[in-house]
User: Which sequence fits this backbone?
């Protein structure tokens, strides 16, 4: 007899495992299906984010920042250091230790909340009440379970270019790019998005000569124009060679590395020779093997599972969350959708404001924003005022030596309601939360301006940017 559950979650990435934990907290008999295996051929929870995405990349970003700081930035503090070198094997081992701690932590959460881990890959073979899900485990073993409710949380996978074979040795996506055994002398990257910039930053700091080829004519087109302009200036000064408006013509693997033939923004044929090539041209929803014959789950024209505003699919009692549905491919968006769905199943009136979800790029300096950009407001015919303030004259930033960047706030010209906050700074990922909170509560720039901010802190720059909307900054 097959096991019967109230809720079955397919996928144990950030969205899936959080959905399973919250459903269990709400009293549902819950199972989560996951068959991911790490490089040691061990089953691991956490999906792409914890295993080959957010967590390992941030570990390497931190290690490479430490290396650059010791080699290039401690002298200004009166600290002389010589003979600095990279032990990449130890750096990679630290990364794997962190990943293991995080994935084992999810196992603990499952045990604590009595979530059953069904080890394998899930397929919905019949939809109804109940739904039937087939779990394909190791060695061809299969079992069927039933559930009144199903939450699809299968995430996404790296998009590859036609005709370019990713072997994750010489030509890599995010998985291979996090596992280099040596620092490449010359590194090529196709794509100047979040992954390309973050991984390019890691290997540049560790000694690679990095060239990034981007198809779009504008740099960081999703960011506020002022932020994108500042980021371009900083990153190119650091040594990232970024080519915009590029068309990739041919990629050839050779004994000595990779040759990329491309056409530049002036229509001229160019060549890039590199030891390793990273392909980071976006991600696609992971729906392979998810649906059995006769199950009519609706997908949209881009291959995402079609859902309504509350993550319901066209199938009764089947929901979908995270990267496999519309919206930004962000781990924290997936987590909140997991909570949303679990609480809706429990009959609660849960809500998620997609308009204030923060975006973060973990370069150095970091880039973070939430809400609308100034150009989006203008395109929509919304009259706005903006306030901007630099970190270069902030006491805390001067003390830490992290003075690059600024905060920009966009507010409605008539109501003063904050419509967007945009930050470029070493700690932008933490500072953006004040903007998110303000927007969630439909707050005004005056609310930020009137709140006491500790001194000396970086948060004072957020307040000064709010004051700048009325041209009354106190420290400029």
Assistant:
């Amino acid at each position: 007899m097959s096991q019967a559950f109230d809720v079955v979650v397919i996928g144990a990435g950030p969205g899936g495992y959080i959905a399973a934990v919250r459903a269990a907290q709400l009293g549902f008999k819950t199972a989560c299906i996951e068959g991911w295996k790490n490089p040691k051929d061990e089953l691991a929870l956490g999906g792409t984010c914890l295993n080959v995405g957010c967590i390992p990349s941030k570990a390497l970003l931190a290690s490479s920042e430490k290396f650059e700081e010791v080699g290039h930035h401690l002298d200004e503090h009166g600290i002389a250091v010589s003979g600095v070198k990279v032990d990449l094997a130890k750096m990679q081992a630290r990364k794997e230790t962190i990943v293991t701690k995080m994935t084992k932590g999810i196992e603990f959460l499952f045990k604590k909340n009595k979530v059953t881990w069904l080890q394998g890959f899930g397929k919905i073979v019949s939809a109804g009440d109940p739904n039937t899900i087939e779990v394909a485990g190791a060695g061809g073993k299969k079992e069927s379970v039933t559930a009144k409710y199903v939450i699809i949380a299968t995430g996404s996978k790296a998009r590859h270019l036609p005709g370019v074979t990713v072997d994750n040795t010489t030509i890599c996506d995010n998985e291979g790019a996090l596992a280099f055994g040596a620092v490449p002398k010359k590194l090529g990257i196709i794509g100047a998005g979040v992954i390309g910039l973050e991984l390019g930053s890691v290997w540049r700091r560790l000694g690679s000569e990095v060239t990034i080829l981007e198809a779009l004519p504008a740099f960081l087109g999703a960011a506020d124009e002022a932020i994108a302009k500042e980021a371009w200036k900083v990153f190119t000064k650091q040594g990232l060679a970024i080519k915009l408006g590029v068309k990739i013509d041919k990629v050839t693997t050779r004994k000595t590395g990779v040759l990329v033939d491309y056409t530049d923004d002036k229509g001229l044929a160019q060549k890039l020779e590199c030891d390793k090539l990273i392909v980071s041209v976006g991600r696609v929803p992971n729906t392979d093997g998810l649906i059995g014959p006769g199950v009519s789950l609706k997908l949209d024209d881009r291959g995402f599972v079609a859902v309504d505003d509350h993550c319901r699919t066209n199938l009764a009692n089947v929901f979908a969350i995270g990267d496999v549905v519309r919206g930004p491919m962000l781990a924290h968006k997936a987590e909140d959708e997991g909570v949303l769905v679990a609480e809706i199943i429990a009959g609660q009136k849960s809500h998620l404001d997609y308009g204030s979800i923060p975006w973060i790029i973990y370069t150095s300096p970091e880039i973070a924003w939430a809400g609308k950009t100034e150009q989006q407001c203008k395109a929509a015919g919304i009259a706005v005022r903006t306030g901007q303030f630099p970190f270069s004259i902030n006491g805390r930033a001067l003390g830490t030596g992290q003075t690059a960047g600024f905060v920009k706030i966009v507010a409605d010209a008539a109501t003063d309601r904050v419509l967007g906050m945009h930050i470029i700074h070493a700690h932008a990922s933490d500072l953006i939360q004040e903007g998110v909170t303000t927007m969630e509560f439909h707050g005004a720039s005056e609310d930020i301006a009137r709140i006491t901010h500790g001194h000396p802190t970086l948060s004072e720059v957020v307040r000064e940017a709010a004051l700048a909307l009325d041209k009354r900054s106190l420290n400029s």
